[in-house]
Amino acid sequence: MTTADRLTDALYGLGWSTVKKLPEPVAVRLGNSVADLAWKQRGKGVQRLESNYARVRPDAGPERLRELSRAGMRSYLRYWMESFRLPSWSEERIRTGFVPKDVHHLTDGLASDRGVILALPHLANWDLAGAWVTTELETPFTTVAERLKPETLYDRFVAYREGLGMEVLPHSGGTAFGTLARRLRDGGLVCLVADRDLSASGIEVGFFGDTARMPAGPALLAQQTGAILLPVTLWYDDTPVMKGRVHAPIEVPESGDKAAKTSVMTQALADAFATGIADHPEDWHMLQRLWLADLDPAKGPS
Hints:
By secondary structure, this protein is α/β, with parallel strands linked by helices.
């Protein structure tokens, strides 16, 4: 492990061991202070966040975009402060910390025993939404996590999410899809963050007026297992309670081959994500390149 890897692992470990012990108002102030410092430094992540917001709000001028990026960094640090503290939250705090609309789409789907796929963009705090599902609905689920470096950091994230009641599969290795399909065929719940895929297998979608790639997995799983595919969007407001919406099911088209059906369904997911992002752009934590036009053509998909 390199010195940088050891430092990264130590910093995250410090967050989970120290931040969770802070009183909530202190943690909020700390998060805002760190966010404002990062925003003022104008690093690559902040610049990319601002550039992405410019696509979501094409009429916004430079001053408005800077306001959005500052709010976006505060939202992003709120996610981290909450995530560091979630393991110490009581069940009641988790239950009252998230209020979703139209949750009947989820509960009805679970009652059908067909299996349910929840697909989310990088909005607000998807870990809190997951903890609410395992606590309030008493429903475990399976998700996928990208392998991080160093490996010890990946292990920390897996332990953290498993502690919240999630089954976590590694993204690499090629076995995740089969396991997810088995869980769905058994009537289970699968949750996937699904607004960015720069691999060659990503599905091209229209997204805020240009082309991006999003993962094919949610649509393919729904086709192969008969599970119900539900988009979910999340947002923060001026309260400590996160809000969210479970959108109506995305149906499998009656005609077309697998590729065509996957394309149509993934576009429908992108459209649902876009509605939530457009309403709450500052809660979309996309600090990386997303649109194909923003990728380095010399490097290609990464």
